[in-house]
Amino acid sequence: MERPNAWESYSDAQLAELEEFSSAYTAFISNNKTERECVASAIGLAEDAGYANLDELIEQGAKLEPGARVYASNRGKSLILVELGTEPLTKGINILGAHVDSPRLDVKQNPLEEKNDLAYLDTHYYGGVKKYQWVTLPLAIHGVVAKKDGTVVPVCIGEDPTDPVFVISDLLIHLSQEQLQKKASEVIEGEMLDLLVGHKPLVIEGEDDENKKDAVKKNLLSILKDYYDMEEEDFLSAELEIVPAGPARDLGFDRSMILGYGHDDRSCSFPSLCAQLGLNKTPKRTALTILVDKEEIGSVGSTGMTSRFFENVVAEVLALAGYGEGSLALRRCLTNSYMLSSDVSAGFDPSFASAFEPKNAAYLGKGLAFNKFTGSRGKSGSNDADAEYVALIRKVMDEHDVSWQTAELGKVDLGGGGTIAYILAEYGIRVIDCGVPVLSMHAPWEVISKADLYEAYRGYQAFLSL
Fold first, then answer.
1. Is residue 400 domain-shared with residue 302, that is, in the same domain?
2. Average pLDDT for 301-320
């Protein structure tokens, strides 16, 4: 059951649309490298598309009718978009669910130190990473500093061509005999991921030797004070994320691929967002897209999928649509709902073919990849979509001429991974994972095919039309 290459089927018009969509996506992931940035940008696009703030509608006591468009943000890190359909909500809704966090390095709360006239920020890696991949790369700092007076200062350093960048150093090859004998997991340890951020001391004329101690650190604190009105203690309430510096780029002589940071999972969250915002008529079933935080660390916390944010927003929408404030309508709505858990899959890499089972692998260029189950080994921690639902999804994709394929995440005994699918399945929602195949997943720079990105967008559009 080999699937055809999507590139072979495109008309000139489709190729033009593919390139236009890929360019928009490349700009989005280049400009939005954190969950906060993704949500803020998505809200701007949603408001331009006529979406209203749910909190404001609740205050006004508004009544929602079919065609109403609303959004709700959870602490600026997760977002839900809803367009009401013509069918009763209790008959179920169509849900696209993706995440907007990606593996990265987070600055610790007490991070700044000086060692031998070099200043560093200590970091703590976030999500599953190969630590050795993060050394000797130009890195940027994104995030916010929340101060005691209530102000929140945005930070983005390393993206503008005139900005400085930062780096984590590595041992030179000439002295690496012992290092090279270590396992890959031990070559760079977590506490070695110190970000080099400065070297020049603060010079004050007439200062005695005792006051010259930590002069490089003092100079950095002076710079932070000038630019951000920031004291050292403000690191305690800062969220600063270390990400690869620079924009995503076309990859290959034929420009058929995209090299970028955060394809997992923005190569699914952006098409989901665009499919939701691009509905050109009121859908039959209510359409909902959730862009959620914390998936890379287990979907925990108040902005992760295990929080009550999703459930609460759907309950509020039901109340404004006239279904009352009890729980029965909510339970009926969710039990009758369909979902695509929009998350990436491991793309087959010929350089590491032994990690895959070829008949059940996702291949670049063959379209949207469906994973009936994820989990690890014996499907542990997995949602496993039922056959009837898989058949329904097959029918929808084929009726809309979407290029799609099925996959598992590598050989059975090698490992595995998880998504948000199992969390939504707890509500009785019928859900299957589907997304874009990725090479070098969780590396600082990942690779996707433009064809698969485009087919994800087309597939998500088809699903919302159910």
1. yes
2. 97
